[in-house]
Amino acid sequence: MADVDEIWLEMQREQPGAARRKVKGGLDLSSLQKERPKAKKAGAKKQLDSSLHWMQSWSASLKTEQQDFGATALAGADGAAMSMVEPPTTLIDAVEELPTGTPETFLAYLQRDVNCLAEDSLSVRLQSIQKLERILVQQADGLSTDIVDAVCDALLKPLLKRMKDKSEKCRELAVKILQSLVENTSDLAATLPYVFPTLVARLGCEDLDGVAHLPEVMRPDPEQKPLELARPVEESEEVRLCLGRFVASLLSRCSPTQVYSYVDECTGLIRAQAMDPYHEVKALACETMVAFCYNHREMLLHFALPLARSLTSCLTHNHAKIRIAAMRAVTACLFCGVWKHNFEIFQILMAWQDPNKVPIKAFFEGVTNVNYMSTLSFDRHPAVRRFWFETMGYWLLRCVDKVDLEPYIVPYILTGLCDENEEIALEVFWLIEKVGEAYEEEHESDLRKTKQYGFDYGWTYEGRASVPFPLQGVWGGGGSVSSHVRRTGARGPDFLGEKALGEHKYREQLDAEIAEGEDVELEEEDEATRKLGKPLPLPTRDYCWGDFRDMKVFRRLPRPRLGSRCWVRTHARRFIKATFNDVVDFRDCTANNAGRLLCMSIAYTEEGVTEWLQPMTAALTKFYSGRAWAAGDSKVMETYSTVCKLLGAFLEPISLWTQLKTALDPDSLLDLDQRVASVRILSMCLQGHIETLQSISPPDPSVGLGHLEEVIPELISMMHESDLLLSPTPESREALWLLLFSFLEPLRPQLSEGQISQLLFVALALAAKPPSDQASELPVTGPSSKAKAARAAADQLQLLDLEEEELLDPEKLNRALEALSQGLEETVTAATPGKMQALPSYSLDSMEDDDFVASPCEVVESDPRSLHQLLFERAFMEVMERSDDSFQVFRSVLYLSPLAVLVKADHQDVVFQRLASFVASTASQPTRCAAHTLGVQLAHRCAKLLESLPTGSSLAPLARNFIWKVFQLAGRAQSEAMTGKCQSLSFAVIMTSLSQWRGFFLQSCVDPRLALFPSVQQEVSSEPLAWMVSCFADQELYKRFHLAMEHAEVVLTGRSRDDFVVEKARQFRLESERRSNIARAMSMSTLLLGLRRMLLDGRSSSLPWQPGSAAGSTRGLFLAVASMFSTAEPTMDPPFVRPSPPGLIIYAAEILHLLLHVEQVEAAASAFRLLDDAARAIHQLPVPKSKPCLPQGMRLSTEEEEQLVANFIGAMLELNLTLPPDPQAKHAPASLDQGSGDIVLGWDDSLLPASSGDDGRIAAASSRESSAVPAEVTRLLAQSSECQRWNAALALYTLGVDLSEVFQDAFHANIARWKKRKEQAKVLLAQDVLQRGKKTLSALT
To answer: Residue 1110: beta bridge partners?
Structure first.
């Protein structure tokens, strides 16, 4: 466009009479002018202040400036540069009121000031334009039209030139005068050719996009064009605001013909103002655009897109009012681009980009496109969000081409249902209801049959079921919805007239009465309002759309109307697959928004979502197995839980089950995370359908399982057979619990007994605790402190408490058992009235049975687990059939089953058959340890039951037999492991069994005779005694441990034995010896403790020894212990046997000493304890409580007696000590940890009655510790070699006193033989033993 200077020159050529000086060669005279400070001029009729009287002599006159000779030379013949430097006094100043008789007269008074507008002096121009502004703007109402027209013709061009003035004030006043003239002139035709070009130049809107110089093929796409002016031509914000008002007035005065002539300029001016950085200019531009578009919509078809694009900067402005004004302006643009460009507007608003086009700019720098619709949907200001959703509703109701716009709008208006402000979410719901009502009117013919014939989908159960609307993505609407309104069920036409007229109801009519407490004036409200309750008050706003000023919003939400559901279903297929991609996004905000949109889509689409069932379940599976679920955001979890429940409510359960059942299949190809995710989805879908089933009104018991009839049986069967139960992870355990409870409690009355048994197995499997990891069979050796700590930790195997809780989720299991026992409890109560009321309360949180009081009633009242006795009794065999695959399930079954169920003869066989497979050497080490512990726990329960049972109870023999079988099974399994392949030998299993047996023997309610001897005199060997005897008597046990560790090393590393280095072989040798000593000492300590317990418990004066030499007989035990005094013949490589260490000799001597005094109870209380100075104690041997003798019924041959004495003397010589010791010599071995108490063999404080606890005979510390290895064994083996050897000598001398009395003839026979062989050491030592024995026993008599 032409510049203002060019326009001004053209105006001068049109008026040749004007006395104007031509400007040469582009010389600007103002550059040669030296401006002086502006001085105020006193008016003729104004009184000056006293301080300004010195200015009275001033007058307006022409003065010659100080000439610049350089400027004069440039001026040439023009002479001295004469200019006005002070504002002159004009006629406007001289006359108080200008005459307005004729236009010529009025212009004459203005002419001087008009001429002054061209002066170079700023003060002159400013003074004159201020005078004109006062006359033509402030007093414009008093001017006639002809005067305004004349003034407009005369002042238009001078004022247009002043719009480019250097002075901001001059430009502002010029624009105001022009605005006043345009508003009051009668004809704008003559002014438009000058006004529009000038405005376009001043606002810089000739080429806003900067593409006019480019060929058509090189011009960028609309989304790449500028959205806001960075540096406007007019720098003053106030002037741009005045220009905006001028443009608004100009466009409002232009006729359609004039607008058509300058339509490019008009739209460019509005766009420039909308893209202006000043917020007030933007607000004015939005108002101008609204009026302009509504007035000239027919001719703006091709300008709708540029106009709307210019508003994008307003849609993201910081001021909420600008964003609201921009939405109204965009709405106006949509009415201009009907059927042509509106879809392009929406592509701009939603940042759509052709995937096949990549802008060149994107190759060099980042390109960001803003989704304005999404930004407004989540705007920070509630008022903006509310108006945005109302605006989208207005578009859907009022736009002519809404068919093209609906696919873009539907996702965003559905998002409004999840707005954080509940009032906005409620309003959006009712906005969609209005849209649905309009849809029903437009598609009346399509919906006619659906309405008339009362068709409805299967999930409604013939219109009797309902699903609460999930407002804000919360199942049931959350806290924002007080209650829901049920619509009437679908009914067909009543052709036969079977119903009264009053019973005829329109389909989906609101079928709920007003809630109690809601204040609604019924006489002023219609029927729908009466059902929905009191309307929610909406804020009053002047910018609200007129269609929604009277809209009513209610908190009680019904099922969306038919039109709304069909409308959403029509458009959901356009975006729902894209939503699945955002479901698996790792960002919580994206996943949450996608989940909410999916939730609302399902809520309206209902059963129509079956079309996308497969990709939807795949997306949900990825979500629950991906990072979004792992983040654990509570809002995201709640949203997707609602999505799954809605799927279960609306879809056929068999369809969902077909998609998700592979998660429970052992042959599934899915990863574990995906299987767990599928189980979670399935559980929540079941919850949704069951809640729908429960919502049937009126309740109908005949419905039963409803559509779940085909799913529940197969589901229970697959859960029962699923491999997820065998070794569940914490995640899979939680998911399976969720699946179980999703249908167990509500559908319990509909389940069969077989299904109850299967579910009981599932519940027990989920609550089962996996076997704990025991110490490795590999040695942990090394000089470092870390290795020593690891080796010490390996020794400290955890001693499991006999009453330890074997459940992981006791609360959940108790809940499941209560649900499974519901129907059975009624049966028991009816069969035995009053019996169940006597049952004690039972909580799985406390499994302690120590507080039970013996009751004369049957066991069902004394065992707390009998609360669910009938359930376990009916399902026990079916549960046990599957328990062979999982030890933890087997353990849970036995742990929770009442003893009355376990000890039944037919049940015992099944229990011991399963238990034998778990304690066998073929099972894993942790399973074997846990199985041995389980057996002892069951025996302990039976012992406590025997203590509480009344005399003559039928359960007593069964319980005693159960204890005997448990220990027989455990002892046999341990013996087979020791005599079989050495690879199956486990140090951890041995120590676990011995520690559990030791703890069992120390229980006050336990009689060890039940575990070690048969209840009746039978020729049956005692497997527990046989194993303990073989364990401590096996002098090659260290070889077996060595082979077991070598095998473990080979399995772990894959190297053969020949590849072991010398250090590794040395580690195996040392560790095997250490483990062998601990195991042998532990077995002797346990046996010794058991013998003392039986002798001191007062239950019987004698022990029920077995006859003969079999295990369990005194002869077999005596000979086995005595065999430790001699070195055994080798049976394994290498071909030699290490002699038993002194610490084990002490135990052997103590056991033999106890057996020789077994007939006297007092002898059991005198346990051997280690001494610091055992050598001196040999000279003061303790006097026995009774005379020693062989146990009753035990006989030894002469050869056996002589061999025993010979081995005894040989063991004393093997100690490598000076025996007998010198009584004057001082022998002080290493300290025995005085601070920890004495080391007493085979003793525990609980063996003595409380009254005799302070008699001073034994001051030992209790051995019941958390470690599986008792303190006495650990401390004994930790003593120095000298200490152990002298204490072994003391123990042997103590035993020698007994042997000298019992086997005196054998001593003399051996002495005679040794004398012949000249074995003088043996002779002297034997004679010394005889002498000390005679001396000691003489004190007894």
So the answer is: none
